[in-house]
Write a structure and sequence with these properties.
Layout lengths: L14 H46 L5 H16 L7 E7 L9 E10 L7 E2 L7 E2 L4 E10 L4
Antiparallel strand pairs: 1-2, 2-5, 3-4
Helix pairs in contact: 1-2
Length: 150
């Protein structure tokens, strides 16, 4: 009776599944961070456009109405865009003698805390002992335009 030859070849069944299980969490984290960066960039761009709109409207109006018209334009722009812009702080300020140059400028600013999609702590251990909280940060957009008619 002949015995089969023993080979030193190992069985590779299941290797792909193990590799996929090890790399999937890293891929998901990278994908999540790319999505969040895109959201933050979009919200910043909308805020920057709103400050440009508000500053432009304030510059072309008289000094008496500049602040009110500029803030109204910024608010209407943000409302027209839609989306969730909670805790948004919009302001338009007239600054005479900007940087001690004798020039009057309009400064339009928008500030808003960025809210992550995932709210709350991220458990890093199975028992939830070492939780990591998303770090809050504030988006800030600002436009300064020279006011010639003031």
């Amino acid at each position: 009776m002949k015995q089969p030859l023993k080979t030193n070849v190992r069985d590779d069944r299941g290797q792909s599944l193990v590799e996929f299980a090890l790399t999937l969490p890293m891929l998901l984290v990278v994908m999540f961070m790319i999505t969040e960066f895109g959201r933050a960039l979009y919200q910043y761009n909308v805020m920057a456009q709103a400050t440009r709109e508000g500053a432009r409207v304030a510059v072309v109006n008289s000094a008496d109405n500049a602040v009110a018209f500029g803030e109204a334009r910024m608010d209407s722009f943000m409302t027209a865009v839609g989306g969730s812009f909670d805790d948004l702080d919009l302001s338009v300020v007239i600054e005479p003698n900007y940087a001690e140059s004798g020039t009057t400028v309009i400064r339009a600013t928008a500030d808003m805390p960025f809210r992550w999609i995932l709210q709350g702590d991220l458990p890093t251990n199975p028992d939830g002992a070492a939780a990591v909280s998303p770090t809050p940060f504030t988006l800030h957009a600002e436009t300064v335009m020279r006011a010639e008619g003031f």
